[in-house]
Amino acid sequence: MKKTILILLLAAVSAGGYAQEKRVESTVMMDTLEVDYKTRYVSSFWSNFYIQGSFAGRVMCAEDDNHLSVGKRLSPGFLLGIGKDLNPNLSLRLSFGGMRLTGWNTGIPGIYKQYANWSDGNDPVREYLESQGVDTKDGYKQKMKYLEVNLDLMVDLYNLFHEQKRFDRRWDFEAYSGLGYLYNMRWHGMSKENKIALRLGAIAGYNITDRLAVNAEISSSITSATFDGEIGKGNQFDTFFSGLVGLKWRIGKQGFQVVRLVPTEQYAALNNSVSKIRREYTEHSKTVHRTVTHVATGSELLIPAVVFFPEKDTYNEELQQVNIFEVAHFMEEHTNYKIAVIGNSHQASDRVARKRAERVRNILINRYSIQPSRLIVRVKDMGSVSDHMEDNQTVNFAIEQ
Description:
Elements: E1 2-6, E2 11-15, E3 24-28, E4 32-36, E5 38-42, E6 49-61, H1 70-73, E7 75-85, E8 90-105, H2 124-131, E9 140-156, H3 157-161, E10 171-184, E11 193-207, E12 212-224, E13 237-251, E14 257-261, H4 264-282, E15 289-293, E16 300-307, H5 317-333, E17 339-344, H6 350-366, E18 375-380, E19 394-399
Parallel strand pairs: 17-18
Antiparallel strand pairs: 1-4, 2-3, 5-14, 6-7, 6-13, 7-8, 8-9, 9-10, 10-11, 11-12, 12-13, 15-16, 16-19, 17-19
């Protein structure tokens, strides 16, 4: 991946601070240096696990099943799973489930596998049902008990198409494919079957907290036409569809360390450039300034702030990214501090102000590996105490009391 790192281009950066109208100016030397690097996401084996449980409704689609309405074929089920995030894009899930499936036979004698030398009229399911007093003249239901074990590869659709990986958003969307082992039990005249199925599905999740989420899932399992015990009546496959609703709980340590792999020949040049910018930037004053208690927030503010475009949740990457870096560096040096990320609502809606603050928070978490528990998103009217226009469109930082 090719990235451009801005180093050594002469630019005056105004850090938006608030301490009785106090402002701090600093000059930074910058220039442009191209670096080719690869990104790796590193975590221990025992981190990024989750468990989930879901209730299911399943609909069988096999020989003759279209003669029975979907509602009458709808059968209860369950799914229990354990998974692990391999990286921000991919995860593996092992699941166990099953319960009931319902099919239909039109009344034409079924050709069941358990009778290798079958003859016309020899239908074990019909024989069982008639022994129970069921009229099978116009057809009958095939009732099945089954179990399944599945291994699915999950793809996070948001992270797959966005370079900025987000682990703390409210909504998750995943698609998956995998293989399943299906075991159809001997029950109500049905024969015992063992089959392999191809699985396809999608999941939408809403994160209630950073660990607990509620999920809605749809899936399909495609297997041999003999899964229901019949040799088949022209069908090549049996399929059943599932709709599931359940909970997901993230267990243990979560998150990844972001590692940038820079080619050796470029590393020395990059290191020299970083050293120059640090000398130029830190000789005049500390990179992050702490002010006295702010009259509006009652908190100790940090300088610099991040200035956004008016009425938008975007900013000038070249000018503002260094401010986020300096706050991250400050938090790395002061590991006992919690920081409030404050979206300024003055002359902007609360929704835009919160989106700005959440964007900066996500960068601190995902790019600089700051723990989410150390960052608190707030929305306040910070600009009402300042006459400077740029102060009305900022995200500020304060030491949380």
